[in-house]
Structures are given as C-alpha cells and as structure tokens.
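Please predict the structure of the following assembly.
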Amino acid sequence: MRHIDPSTIPHAESHRYLLGGVAPRPIAFVGTLDAGGRPNLSPFSFFNAFGANPPVIAFSPAFRGTDGTPKHSFLNIKATGEFTVSVVSYAMVEQVSLASGEYPEGVDEWVKSGFTKLPSSRIAPPGVAESPMVMECRLLHHIDLGGGPASGNLMIGEVVMFHIKESAFDGKYLDAERLDLVGRMGGALYCRASGSAVFTLAKPSHAGIGFDALPERVRNSPILTGSDLAKLAGAGELPDIGAVAAFWREKLASAGEHPPDDIEVELRLGDPERALDALLPRLRDGAPNAETEALLHRVAKAFLHRDMIDRAWQCVLAVL
Ligand SMILES: Cc1cc2nc3c(=O)[nH]c(=O)nc-3n(C[C@H](O)[C@H](O)[C@H](O)COP(=O)(O)O)c2cc1C
C-alpha cells in the first residue's frame, strides 16, 4: 500500500488521485448569466446532491491550476446567485466536452457546442433543452476551499424547479436506461450508467446479523469472499441449527435414482442443487474433512450467486 501525504506532493498529483479514485462522478452542466446577461455553459464533475428537504446540490468550480484565476461560472454565480444544472446523457457527451473549452469571457457555449436553451421559470439563466433533467438553482452558500490555484469553491444551491423529459420516466420515477447518464472518471475516462454497467442490489429490509455474528469457520473461509459473506451476514438471524440438522438428515436419507456423480461438472454448469447431491456420498461417509468443507463452501457460493441465501446457510452449517 502507498501512503501519500498530500502536503508533500504537487496539487496536480493530488488532483490525479482524486479524479481516478473518486469515480465515477456525475456531471453538472452548469448554465449561468454574467452581470450583463451574457450566457455561459460549462461542465463540472465535482458535483453531487446533498439533501432533499429542501433539495440541495453542490458543485465546485476550482480556481485555475495554472494561474489561480476564477472560472466564469464561478464569477457569474457570485454576481447573480443563480444557475441551472442540466444532467448529461451519453448522447450529449461530445458536445459537453466541446463546451468545456476555455472560451474567453462572454462567449456563449450553448452556441459553441450546438445546444439549445431551455428557458427557466424561476431564475434567469436557461438550462439545456437536450438534457433529460434540468434543475433551476439558487445559491445558498459559497464555501471557499483554499483560495489558491486548483483549490475548489463549493457552490451549494437549492433546487427551485425541476424540468424532466417525459422520456426519462418509467411511471412516476426516473429510469436509468431511459436517462442513459454518463459519469466522469480519471484522465480521459467516462462511463455510461446504463446497460450491463447497471445492476440491482435490493435495499436491506432489516439489520443483518453482521460479519461478527458469522461462525468463525465461515468468516475465515478461503472460498467465500467478502461479498459472499455479506449475503450470509445480511440474514435477520442465525438459522436454527435444529432445522438445518433435520434438513441434512432428510437429504442424506434420500437418494435419487440417478444421483449426479461429478460436483465439478454441476458447479461448472451453475447447478448448485445437483452439486449438493453429488456431494452427498462424501457426507454419508463419516465426519466431513477439510476437503469436503471446502466443497460445501463452493456449493454455498453457487447458491449465493443465485441469491438462494437459505440454501447457502444449510451448506455452510453442514459441518459445524
Ligand atoms: C466532464 C468535465 C468535468 C469537469 N469538471 C470540472 C470541475 O469539477 N471543476 C472545475 O473547476 N472544472 C471542471 N472541468 C473543466 C471546466 O469545464 C472548464 O475549466 C471550463 O472551461 C470552465 O468554464 P467557465 O470558465 O466558463 O466556467 C470539467 C471539464 C469536463 C469536460
């Protein structure tokens, strides 16, 4: 492991670590007007949402790393207290990148990058009509995060109006596939929050027993990973040992007409139920040894992969 004290390295290096490690980051495409009403549009990925009541977002236009000068977006918000944040979909990203060019003061990046202005209803700066969601924001606080080159300015804004395209909705709420948002990563990398990059993880309905409540042999398994153990530790309570023993008595007493005889084949085919049946002869032959325990953990892992948590518990408790 490398231990790096940021006070001992150039800020450009810290910047690289932050961009690479704090990723992916959503992108705020920020629309502002200067004191004279001239529009400005620029992307910022030091951005997130921070509260819902009231709805609050924040982003950070840094002082330029080269000469410490402020960005136009920052100056405009300081002057007017208003900005729009348009979220960025994959279809927009090339144009968004174009808008990030360091154009001279007063240049309208909607024009430069070919976007259309979406009039706001509560504030003066427009949003981006091509974006699936635009938020009208009023500045709540500006926090100066250092004052020198490459230091940030946290611009905290209250969302006073949402504009969301009908095509982004699945029923009442937003749909990731329909939004097809992009995130910024380190260097020139972006990612797309749709397709196979998106996965489901059900919100826990209760507090799990936790890793500390897992039997030691399970917690120290060389087969089960942290993710596997988290599924077991998410159980509301430890399974009843008597019920598990009864399950095994019944299982061992039953034998199909053509029991599977090769656990590796069944595991390779992703069939934990048949893999377990292939293991039965070993479990009938006296106390399970370390090798059998490892096989049981592999079968448990296959059950966990299918989110069959109870079956996995039966496997890992078979040899306790
Ligand atoms: C995807 C993306 C994300 C960016 N994020 C930030 C950021 O979080 N903070 C920042 O200061 N600059 C960021 N930039 C660079 C600014 O967009 C760039 O400096 C821009 O010219 C600022 O424009 P302005 O001076 O008109 O405000 C980002 C650029 C891109 C392409």
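The chain has a mean pLDDT of 96. DSSP finds twelve helices and 14 strands in the chain.
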